[in-house]
Specification:
- Two copies of one chain form a homodimer.
- Chain A is of the alpha/beta class and about 375 residues long.
- In chain A, the strands form five sheets. Chain A has a six-stranded parallel beta sheet. In chain A, strands 1-2-3 form a three-stranded antiparallel beta sheet.
- In chain A, strand 11, helix 7 and strand 12 form a beta-alpha-beta unit.
- Chain A has two domains: about 230 residues, TIM Barrel (Alpha-Beta Barrel); about 90 residues, no CATH class.
- In chain A, helix 8 runs parallel beside helix 9 and helix 14 runs antiparallel to helix 15.
- At the A-B interface, helix 13 and helix 14 of A face helix 13 and helix 14 of B.
């Protein structure tokens, strides 16, 4: 199955494209809301679709522990039928979570043995296991199973980790494509903050045919300039005729900075997680709706926003829901934050198409990065 | 403001009517979902409207503590604007909650002094205070502030409590109607399980003009036959040309039993609270979705149900969401349970209109009352 990547327009390194996947077309640059356990938290699929989400991300690690890939696979079309989402799905490989969430972890060439954080049971995951799970989930895009390099890492630590990831990528590729797969497998460039290792990782991957490629091992705590240095080194070396996915990024200004350098796909828990904590993205920066200054504020959260939360509810009401731990507060905040991200991507695509990306990027970069100060 | 109560059809004591309220028409027998803090938990108003809810209940006690009636009143149309619900709202008086939730309670003829369960502050609520709050909330139907009789209560305890409620009802009526009010004030019959006291309460109320009347002091732990005895005694004594509201009831079979005796309006936290605990109402009885037997069950929760939860998700998925404490599980369960209740009321109204209420009542009564046994 060949992945069709339809490049529509470019503005500098930024580009607009359409990725043709088994369950539909994804317009890029695209943001993928994260649906860890087969649900984008607090959102039903029709709401996600109404917000304009074209693809969501599912977590192989979490879903393989609960409910188990076998149970998801009982449903028509795998994870699509299980969660009631008929549009495209990308699944991560579980690699990142194995390294960030699992305890008593033992890494061998074969794979990783760890204790399930759910019930303490011993679990083993190899590149082949990850491919089996992702095939069972029937995701449109599966990701290679990688050894995630910690930050910071010395050159030799980063090299050892990257080289293992590359050997695992080869095994995963062979296993995923052993017969007709349900989707496409993306490779992941590793190498930490070491540019020569990024080059080596890319060269190792290029021995195989990957329909898309991701940059992993970023958004792990490194300073922004380190990340941009890695992106500026790596992106021009990556194939330009297929999608480039920057895993786990990020804030709006980080997305814009990456798009400017040629990234097509993003995922991040930020909009959904922030909504659960009452942190809401606005045209004036992030607002903490718990702030007492909103107590008697009958205005909309963001007067510049057209989402249903901003059209129908006051800041006073949103603050009240948050204060009373009402689920509706999470729902309305999630709708707003996802609208903010998906609208940002729509604006990015339109600006690139119009050759005006630099101007939009400047406006996004100018949004205050901290919680907005008290209004007068 | 005169309340228009349009009696359409009767089948025995059961009747179908239309109650014309400032924010719209309510078809009775009606079930009112409970929106304690200005939100029916986990439901946005458009979802409630789509389910066919015509009226919701707001809690005066809770809303007066958080966010405070003054903050709600800053919004257009009071609670309607605050919560984004343009259809009718009934508010309780706070009496029941003062007696069931407040601590360090001191009752005097003037009113009740208690500690706020939110922040421990000393709060006072009198019949006049309750009317002021309900007027500020701009509910379509306000309720008299009453002294809720505990269960069980001796004749003298029940008499003292009922007589205080009746004096408070007179004060509340004068205060609510002192000038043009935003809605209608319903009286509440008290008297515990003592039939003579129920008669006396009704006679005391009849001295004033109430556009509707409620039966209070039931659903407080009494056996079902006690409740039916009180209903059978009291309902025929109540005016038949205005709505009769049975507060806090109940299970489907309890609603059917009360409709059969002439009740028009109901409210209960059951469908929403049960949904949060994974207890879902079905045509075969209440199902506990946490049960392990649903682990691999790809069928719909209730094959006989047409709600979006049953049309789009499997039992295995609903169990998975519950097990992972996913908010979406509460959302989907609440949609289903409220659909069950609102569909029950639609069926009740249709059956009364068709002169077939007895047959429907028999079918509802035959639904198993406990969690359904394991399926084969």
């Amino acid at each position: 199955m060949k992945l069709r990547f339809e490049l529509l327009q470019a503005d500098g390194a930024a580009r607009v494209a359409r990725v043709h996947l088994p369950h539909g077309i994804v317009e890029t640059p695209a943001f993928m809301p994260v649906g860890t356990y087969g649900t984008v938290k607090a959102m039903a699929p029709p709401e996600l679709a109404a917000l304009g989400a074209q693809i969501v991300l599912g977590n192989t690690f979490h879903l393989s522990l609960r409910p188990g890939a076998d149970i998801v696979a009982l449903h028509r079309d795998g994870l699509h039928g299980f969660m009631g989402w008929q549009r495209p799905i990308l699944t991560d490989s579980g690699g990142f979570q194995v390294f960030s969430l699992a305890t008593l972890r033992q890494i061998s060439e074969q794979g990783v043995r760890f204790r399930s954080p759910v019930d303490g049971a011993e679990v083993h995951m190899s590149p082949e296991d990850s491919m089996d799970v992702q095939r069972a989930l029937q995701s449109d895009v599966a990701m290679a199973f990688d050894d995630c390099t910690a930050y910071p890492a010395s050159e030799s630590q980063a090299r050892e980790s990257m080289e293992r990831s590359m050997r695992w990528a080869v095994r995963g590729h062979a296993h995923y494509y052993r017969d007709e797969p349900p989707g496409h497998l993306f490779g992941i460039v590793q190498g930490g903050m070491h540019l020569a290792l990024r080059t080596a990782s890319l060269e190792a991957l290029t021995a195989l045919d990957w329909p898309g490629m991701a940059i992993g091992g970023l958004a792990v705590g490194e300073p922004e300039e380190e990340r941009l240095r890695v992106l500026e080194h790596t992106l021009p070396l990556m194939p330009s005729d297929r999608p480039r996915y920057l895993m786990g990024v990020g804030y709006p200004h980080e997305i814009v900075a990456a798009v400017a350098r040629g990234v097509d796909m993003f995922d991040c828990v930020m909009p959904t997680r922030h909504a659960r904590n009452g942190h809401l993205f606005t045209s004036e920066g992030i607002v903490n709706i718990r702030n007492a200054r909103f107590q008697r504020d009958t205005g909309p959260l963001d007067p510049a926003c057209s989402c249903s939360t901003c059209r129908n509810y006051s800041r006073a009401y949103l603050r009240h829901l948050d204060r009373c731990d009402e689920i509706l507060g999470v729902q309305l905040g999630t709708v707003h934050n996802l609208h903010f991200y998906l609208e940002l991507m729509r604006r990015i695509r339109a600006a690139i198409a119009a050759g005006e990306f630099a101007a939009l990027a400047a406006r996004i970069m100018a949004i205050p990065r901290r919680t907005a100060p008290p209004v007068a």
